[in-house]
Amino acid sequence: MEGAAELFTPEFLDYVVRLHDELTPRIRALLAKRQAVLRRALDQGLLPTHPPRTAINTGDWKVPPVPEDLRTPGIEISGPCSITSMFINALNPGPEGERAAGDLDDDEDSAGHRLVDTVRAAHNRLAAVNRELRAFDAGKGKEYRIADGELPFFMHRERGIHLDEPDFTVDGQPIPAAILGTALTFYYAGRAQANRGQGIYFYLPKLESAEECAWYRDLFDRTRESLPFLKTAVISAVPLVESLPAVYQMEEMLHALGPYAGGLNAAR
Q1: Mind giving me the DSSP string for the chain?
Q2: How many structural domains are present in the chain?
Q3: Mind listing the pLDDT tens digit for each residue in 235-263?
Q4: What is the CATH number of the domain that holds 134?
């Protein structure tokens, strides 16, 4: 597969396999809990509701200061990171000359969900941070390149924890797509962003509980421990509230993310 060898180096594989060994069993357990919630609703009519009152949902606490990028109002454009020409267009000014404040470089809803797309997206994300991303459409005779000027900030949206990457296996088992995609983002584009003093931002889609946010916190913590170049990097994540269980655990979800909590997004 074109581009895979450059990404799947021995050093990267060591990092991602350690994440897989520790965190994949927890994903399977979290997904089983999702099924139990659904089964109770279907069989017994017991719908999700507010958790018991605790210091988390009644006490006085705050998330850490939100990075200035994420506090800036403006256009936030989204599109598949793996389609190079579309990604470049999203980063460039529109016909009226206005550039988006942020780019949601998407590997979820708008992505192809194949390993080739995951690989291409990782290359494109790194090349965009380095302002080296280009594409040529032979049919149109058109070249795409990043225009001069300040780029939008990048907000990576990886696939939900319920999806696997079937063409990337560890000991014969597919790796969760959220682990592979997030690891690629951190290891390559994330390193380049940290070197430039930029924050590394994530949207976390399809989450249903505070426990799942705690899983992401551990993924980020393990990454800091494994990758010295990210030890002091700014990492911030915004859960997307797009499921009924999550509606009742919003405070708990932010608390579970701890130092990585960057607020909530009500999606659609």
Answers
A1: -TTHHHHS-HHHHHHHHHHHHHHHHHHHHHHHHHHHHHHHHHHH-----PPPP-HHHHS---PPPPPHHHH--S-EEEEETTSHHHHHHHHS--TTS---SEEEEESSTTS--SHHHHHHHHHHHHHHHTT--EEEETTTTEEEEPPSSPPPEEEEEPPPTT-EEEEEEETTEEEEHHHHHHHHIIIIIIHHHHHTT--EEEEE-S--SHHHHHHHHHHHHHHHHH-GGGTT--EEEEEB--SHHHHTTHHHHHHHHGGGB---B---
A2: 1
A3: 999 999 998 899 999 999 999 999 999 99
A4: 3.20.20.360
